[in-house]
Specification:
76% helix; 1% strand; mainly alpha
């Protein structure tokens, strides 16, 4: 297991270095950082001094090594627009995005898996057809349209829930949360459903197809012949064997929730990292763009490592295959 973790960590380092190179290229080829930091009245001498202070006259290899070293210390420089530390700005927005991603992922899992299990066990029932209709809507409609529809139905038409911003936030010092207030949950429910609906429908369809395939397997027929109860067969054998592809997709989708929360945060004006990144793109604030890219890549790497470890816990065949003969 230790060798497996070390091998995965080595691969993660290679991935992060590649992403760091892409992020560093933003500084080199997407505009001039000096032009973003100074006004039109700045003299050429002042511009040259700023370039020297930023180390832009150093060789590219030296600049890249310095960039990676600072990124490893969570030092992403200063925002061109706000003149504040990028690490501080991310720390302020990080709790909002993580809470939104957490609730969206839990919604996708705890709704999608039961729907998929039921649809796999009773593929011809009326409720299964309703679930399939919901999944078709969730996959077909774009995220921003789902958000607009939910805003129109609940806050506008019914006067329920919040449609704008993050309200009822409690400051815990190093973390801010809306979990402790009703206003916080009222603000969180609609964007969480909007962000998690596509993932929920994807998980439901995957669980349904895997469940139906597993139930046709020979070992399930043998379990029935032995007289095992339907509950033991469906949940003790069939469901457990559907979890490997579900874990894979779920892990990737959790990363996607964090990375692609931009649209949802924009529709609901949720003050998270996605909205900050979109604003940075509009103003060509390269330090924020680079930091966001590195942070998302790191989250993907960590999530994939956790998924690989869950494989070993769920499927004993992987543990057996990994033992020396």
């Amino acid at each position: 297991m230790l060798a497996f973790i070390l091998r995965r960590m080595g691969q993660a380092v290679v991935v992060l270095l590649t992403v760091s190179l892409i992020a560093f290229s933003l500084f080199r080829f997407v505009g001039d950082p000096v032009n973003q930091m100074v006004g039109q009245d700045t003299t050429p001498e002042q511009r040259a001094e700023i370039r020297r202070q930023l180390g832009l006259n150093d060789p590219v290899v030296v600049q890249f090594a310095r960039f990676v070293g600072k990124a490893a210390r969570f030092d992403f420089g200063v925002s061109y627009q706000s003149k504040q530390s990028v690490a501080k700005l991310i720390a302020e927005r990080f709790p909002a995005t993580m809470e939104l991603a957490l609730v969206s992922a839990l919604f996708a899992l705890f709704v999608g898996i039961p729907m998929g299990v039921y649809s796999g066990l009773k593929p011809n029932s009326a409720l299964t057809k309703l679930f399939q209709t919901i999944s078709l809507v969730g996959i077909s409609l774009p995220t921003f349209l789902i958000g607009i529809i939910l805003i129109f139905v609940f806050p506008v038409s019914l006067g329920l829930l919040k449609s704008f911003g993050r309200q009822g936030v409690v400051d815990l010092g190093w973390w801010t949360t809306g979990f402790l207030t009703l206003q916080g949950w009222s603000s969180l429910i609609l964007p969480s459903i909007t962000l998690g609906l596509f993932q929920m429908t994807l998980i439901m369809r995957l669980v349904r197809s895997e469940m139906m395939e597993v139930l046709r397997a020979d070992y399930i027929k043998f379990a029935r012949a032995r007289g095992l109860t339907s509950r033991a067969i469906n949940f003790g054998h069939a469901l457990k064997n559907t979890m490997i592809p579900v874990i894979t997709i779920t892990g990737l989708q959790i990363g996607s929730i964090i990375a692609f929360a931009i649209i949802t945060e924009t529709v609901f004006q949720w003050p998270g990292m996605g909205l900050m990144f979109l604003q940075a793109v509009q103003t060509v604030d390269i330090p924020i763009m680079s930091a966001y890219l590195l942070l998302v890549a790191t989250l993907f790497v960590v999530i994939n490592l956790i998924v690989d470890l869950l494989y070993v816990a769920v499927d004993p065949r992987i543990r057996i295959a990994g033992r020396p003969a």
